[in-house]
Amino acid sequence: MPLTLKRIFVGGRNLKRAFIGKRTFIRTSAATAMPSSTTIYVLGIGNLGKFVAHSLKRAHAETPVTLLFHRASLMSEWESAGRGIECVSLEGAEDVPDWATGFDVELLQPLSPSSSLSKEPIANLIVASKTYMTSAALGLIKHRLGNTSTVLFLQNGMGTTDEVSSSVFSDPDSRPSYWAGICSCGVYSTSPFSIVHAGRGPILLGPVVSKNEGVIGNNDSIKSNDAVIQQLLTTPTLEAAATTAMGIKKAQLQKLIVNAMINPLTAIFRCKNGELFSDPPRLALMRLLLREAGPIVRAILREHSTTTTTTTTTTTTTTPPPPSQDPADDESFTDEGLAASVLRVADNTARNTSSMLQDVLAGRKTEIDYINGYLVSEGQKLGLPHKNNATVVELVEGKVVIRVEDIQERFHGA
């Protein structure tokens, strides 16, 4: 069913309903002014979305932050939670809950004859939704985003920005500037609006480059109107840092490989992260998959290294890279370097149940199409082997469970 947006202002304690004709508006006394160009919208209120929203509000109380809800039941849960986000940090001596309030919210509602689309421009948007929901969700607010908007994608997997450019913002002249973020902190939820900050880790931010069009947006510098980037960089608990387009591409690909080697294998073998590679045949399978994935990510890096982009707070310079600085020659992108990263993360998260295994067990859709599926898609474009990663995608999508004894039968060259 088509969706639209209904505006709901939250912040005060006394909720008031105003009926104007047949349209219903829900307001609180906190809504005394229209949001300015500094308003930061958060789309996707999962673990990371809640953590970022909480951190922004605690560090910048004066900055308007609007949460975009995708289902009506979140509104009652929001009310039950006291219209705020609770965060417990395990880093301190005491696990004391920390509350952030004063948010506005907008609720995604089914389209009806009495509803209307908000036309309020969005200058700053953080997308923390599931990858497979992104294009549809952005389509709902496409009319509120333009070439002066900044969209930051904080997501697992890759390929979302290309998909969004193709299906939502097909006109490069009116397309927002894209940024991507890679988060290495540990966050989990204990209730719809309560999270635990279980482990510190930085968020790396960088401009997104299109293989065909260069930097997506006006340029890849941190412009004065990139309020969302400026605010994140000055939010202490996020430990955010900015990098270049190539820097964020490297970080994305490194995380992609880790996710592609751990998440789907835990799903098809039904095991925790730390159990995955304790069995030699499963370790050998990971290395087999890397023999496909390694050349693919190195080829992607070379495609994006035709220019090197230096990002500063005011300027952007573009120069040809010296031959000796081929990013694919980085030791961390050799098959052995990538395998070491995978094993390190598996060891550090040994007791964890991967998000993909959790999704499979709960009967939810997974993000496999944007992880191993992305490797398969890029392998096809590049003419590189990808058959075994395609098998992984098929097994996860089919919710197939296999045994160690099945590896040779299922995977080519095992």
TrEMBL record:
Region span, Disordered: 302-333
Q: Which classification does the entry list for the species?
A: Eukaryota, Fungi, Dikarya, Ascomycota, Pezizomycotina
Q: Enzyme class, one word?
A: oxidoreductase
* Family annotation (InterPro entries): 6-PGluconate_DH-like_C_sf, 6PGD_dom2, ApbA, Ketopantoate_reductase, KPA_reductase, KPR_N, NAD(P)-bd_dom_sf
Keywords of this entry:
NADP, Oxidoreductase
Name by which UniProt lists this protein: 2-dehydropantoate 2-reductase
Residue intervals of the Ketopantoate reductase C-terminal domain:
248-399
> What Gene Ontology terms for biological process does this UniProt record contain?
pantothenate biosynthetic process
